[in-house]
UniProtKB/TrEMBL annotation:
The keyword Hydrolase does not apply. Pfam families: Lpp-LpqN (PF10738). Keywords: Lipoprotein, Signal. This is Lipoprotein LpqN. Residues 1-20 form the signal peptide.
Length: 220
């Protein structure tokens, strides 16, 4: 797998480091699909980028504006603007409210290499599950827009300045693996990640729901 895919996927999927106390359940606010029980396995989770690399998949990051055979829709609520962060890959599409939390980002990778898609989707939420003390609120492996998909919500402690208490954050992540029709038969990996302050979940819920409900992945 390309270094760009590993680094960006790790940064985006490392959405959850977690709180030591029980977190409020925000799934009634942020969930957009029915919860499906995840696949069961006695083996520890494998980071998603590591899994893809292990089955011979390589990925090239693609900006939303450069997509020609699929279309990805990221809704921008009123008051949200383009978000830039030095830790994000240049091809990342990011928006934020007042240039701070909540934020929403979309990553797209053009995938090369044949692989078992259902097996891969079973590993898609692994990075979040492997985060220290991750508290899972909701998880689903239902298809999204007709494509294989995985969704996970969780709470965690965000970064903080030395000596200060880290903020509790809440994250929603959805990974979709669309494919174009034959003869091209091109697979992509699309990830939407939304992160906000947990204590503002109710206040920000309308915007968050607008982004989640407006997110679309279609064949162009």
């Amino acid at each position: 797998m390309s270094r760009r895919l590993c680094a960006a996927a790790a940064a985006a999927l490392l959405a959850c480091t977690a709180c030591g106390t029980p977190a409020p359940d925000y799934q009634s606010i942020w969930s957009s699909s029915a919860t499906t029980a995840p696949p069961t396995s006695s083996e520890p989770p494998v980071p998603f980028s590591q899994y893809l690399a292990g089955v011979g998949v390589q990925g090239e990051a693609v900006a939303l504006a450069d997509l020609t055979d699929i279309s990805v829709t990221l809704v921008r609520p009123d008051g949200w603007s383009t978000y830039r962060n030095e830790n994000l890959a240049p091809t990342t599409e990011g928006i934020a409210k007042n240039n701070t939390y909540p934020t929403a980002t979309v990553l797209v990778f053009r995938l090369e290499g044949g692989f078992d898609v259902p097996a891969a989707i079973a590993h898609a939420n692994a990075d979040a599950l492997l985060s220290p003390g991750f508290t899972k609120l909701n998880e689903s492996f239902d298809d999204f827009d007709g494509f294989p998909s995985a969704m996970i919500e969780g709470s965690y402690f965000g970064p903080s300045e030395p000596g200060s208490e880290p903020p509790r954050l809440h994250s929603y992540s959805r990974i979709v693996i669309p494919v174009t029709p034959e003869p091209e038969f091109q697979r992509y990996l699309v990830q939407l990640t939304i992160t906000g302050l947990a204590d503002r979940a109710v206040a920000d819920s309308a915007d968050i729901e607008e982004i989640i409900n407006g997110f679309e992945v279609t064949v162009a």
